[in-house]
Amino acid sequence: MKHPLRKHIEEIISLTDKEFDFVLSHFETVKKRKHQYLVQEGDIVKKEFWITQGCVKSYFLDENGKEHILRFAMEHWWITDYESFVKQIPSTIYIDCLEDCEFLYISYENREKLTSEMHKMERFWAKKSKFGRIALQKRILSLLKNSAKERYDLLLEQYPQLFQRVPKKLIASYLGVSRETLSRLNS
């Protein structure tokens, strides 16, 4: 049975057993409990995480302490504060576990080393970055042009499992609506 990370990578590039062993040697495993942070505002983020088990949210707090959810991430998704990770500046967001989670992570140094030594992985991350930019553009456009009901329906269609795993108040925050509005959309 193939390692889940190998299956994930091979959706974009092919790897020999030796190449995958080399890739995997750059990763480490970490487990976090529900409500533990991966990233807190002000951290200098040194790791990019691939979720093997669990669900997380990334968010920021406004000047009034209100939480604004940027994204959710589940099994086989990548997450970090990319600005902090790439520029090595203080994070502006939080990433918090919504469930007990397990991750494979790669440090910035190991990712740079891996991509310079194995150009296939450079292509892999370039393609993943493009997909991430597309998803971000779609999210921004949805927030700007779609009604709350349309955003709700789209999220339900794309990620129905989120509704089983994430509290409704967090879904409401992600959609930019109140909990009461979400209840009306849901009926």
Automatic annotation (TrEMBL):
InterPro entries linked: cNMP-bd_dom (IPR000595), cNMP-bd_dom_sf (IPR018490), RmlC-like_jellyroll (IPR014710)
Protein name: Crp/Fnr family transcriptional regulator
Organism: Tenacibaculum platacis
Residue intervals of the Cyclic nucleotide-binding domain: 32-114
